[in-house]
Design brief:
The chain is mainly alpha-helical. Helix content is about 70%, strand content about 5%. The longest helix has 28 residues, at about 60-85.
Length: about 160
């Protein structure tokens, strides 16, 4: 269980169960399918967020979304620090975690940016990292606006 100073502890089991339920609803090829109409990937797929709400509760989904936003902000800071220190191994680990979190919360552009960062760090392509970090930060900013609006509408 994870504890935050400003909140009581919660069990990761609830999040895991909600994610598994949402994944079970998805068609097996959903992740590989292009967006409808061949459009470019969305910043956030709100229909998938709706599936998360359906799989748990509005209160839990709201809490999970808030935690994702806070943790992603911190993670991006750790990634910038790792990049500045030239620690591509730490950067790859953080990028991998961000990729999974972004996929879980239906942020395809952020997920793609994190995957590119992970690949660059794994390949030792340090020169590509600053631009990719900027791309990830911009994707997060756009997703954050959409998800924050979703949080406000749920309140």
């Amino acid at each position: 269980s994870i504890a935050r100073a400003d909140r009581s502890p919660f069990s990761a089991t609830a999040l895991r169960a909600a994610i598994l339920a949402a994944v079970a609803k998805a068609k097996p090829d959903d992740a590989a399918s292009p967006p409808p109409g061949g459009r470019e990937a969305q910043d956030v797929d709100l229909s998938q967020i709706g599936d998360l709400v359906d799989a748990c509760s509005e209160a839990d989904a709201t809490r999970f979304l808030g935690m994702f936003l806070q943790e992603t902000e911190s993670r991006l800071g750790r990634m910038r620090g790792a990049a500045a220190a030239g620690d591509l191994s730490a950067l790859a680990i953080e990028a991998h975690s961000l990729k999974g979190a972004a996929a879980t919360f239906s942020c395809p552009k952020l997920c793609a940016a994190a995957a590119a960062l992970e690949a660059a760090a794994d390949d030792g392509s340090g020169n590509a990292v600053p631009g990719l970090l900027d791309e990830a930060a911009q994707a997060f900013e756009r997703a954050s606006v959409i998800l924050s609006d979703r949080l406000r509408s749920a309140a």
